[in-house]
């Protein structure tokens, strides 16, 4: 089982930086939906099931995106956002 996770991690790490950013940003709508669905007029059980599914998808996209980006990609994103703040001020 451990080798399966290693194979998946290796496959994800070969994807591009842009793909990693897109996958990482995909988690945002799932986080929003996981909490917004609480306002629906459905049973508490259905809300719980929807929350687990949507929140799980959000976490899956988040960790998948971070795996694709890797350490260098995260450094690149931090530098990009740091640069934007210095040009605004």
Characterization of this structure:
- The protein is mostly helical and 89 residues long.
- It contains three helices and no strands.
- It has helices spanning 2-13, 17-36, 44-88.
- The N and C termini lie far apart (50 Å).
Distance between the termini: 50 Å
Beta-strand proportion: under 5%
Summed up, the domain count is 1
- Major sheet: none
Radius of gyration: 17 Å
Given helix and strand content, the structural type is mainly alpha
What is the succession of H and E elements?
Answer: HHH
Query: Which blocks of ≥5 consecutive residues have pLDDT under 50?
Result: none
Assign a percent range to the helix content: over 70%
| Count of discrete alpha- or pi-helical segments spanning 4 or more residues | 3
What value does the average pLDDT take?
Answer: 87
Shape field: flat
Would you count the extended β strands for me? 0
Keywords:
89 residues, single chain, mainly alpha
Task: Provide a brief overview of the structure.
With 89 residues, the chain is mainly α. It is built from three helices and no strands.
């Amino acid at each position: 089982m451990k080798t399966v996770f290693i194979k998946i991690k290796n496959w994800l790490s070969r994807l591009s930086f842009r793909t990693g950013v897109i996958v990482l940003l995909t988690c945002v709508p799932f986080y929003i939906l996981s909490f917004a669905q609480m306002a629906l007029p459905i049973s508490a059980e259905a809300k719980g099931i929807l929350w687990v599914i949507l929140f799980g998808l959000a976490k899956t996209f988040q960790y998948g995106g971070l795996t694709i980006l890797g350490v260098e990609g995260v450094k690149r994103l931090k530098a990009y956002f740091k640069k934007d703040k210095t040009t605004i001020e």
